[in-house]
Amino acid sequence: MNQSIDFHWEAIHADKQWGQYPAEYVIRFVARNFYKVPDRSALKILDYGCGGGAHAWYLAREGFDTYAFDGAPSAVKNTEARMRKEHLEAQFTVCDALETPYNDNFFDAVVDNYCIAMNSTNEIKKMYQEVYRILRPNGKLLTAQFGKKTSGYGTGNQIDENTWTEINNIELCDVGKTHFTDCLEIRQTLEETGFKNIEVDTILYTDNGETIEQIIARADK
Predict the structure, then answer these.
(1) How far apart are CA 116 and CA 5, in angstroms?
(2) Residue ranges per domain, the chain?
(3) For the domain bounded by 8-143+181-201+214-220, which CATH number is listed?
(4) 212 closest CA partner among 221, 201, 200, 203
């Protein structure tokens, strides 16, 4: 089996719960594309690398047929416990993002909030190919990565041209691999994978003295 996940993530999720609420750009993506669908339960949406489970929780609350996975067993365990407590339903699995168990052409949408970003350039390309495989024709992808204006870019141990570990950034120093991208790179990667109707936005802000650049891309299969 192909494996990409760093052991740091199991330790992180076993030690604390975090990421309890969905990102605004995820809500906008789902609302703009799917809120007017008469039967939300007929739409299969995957939280690709669910982490703390915020987006699986949100999708289930909004009535979608929700799926989620993570490579860290503790992430899935914690999210499942939260869903049970709130009487929400979703289908969870533990697997690596390089090799998911889902059938071809299965999902109406895939939401990736920094799961794919925490990998090498080569792994990222393979993961977008995996997303493309499991999306239905005309299915939609939302994906978020760190931009090169993010504090810590170019520091630590270099894995490849734009991927680093042990980064000089409070939030990223202990999470293993982090890839930093720009609008051109992410657009080219998605185009090479086969995606169409690609739109890329940026969000730049500061948090606790650190600069964060978010690269948010949307695309159709």
Answers:
(1) 10
(2) 8-143+181-201+214-220
(3) 3.40.50.150
(4) 203
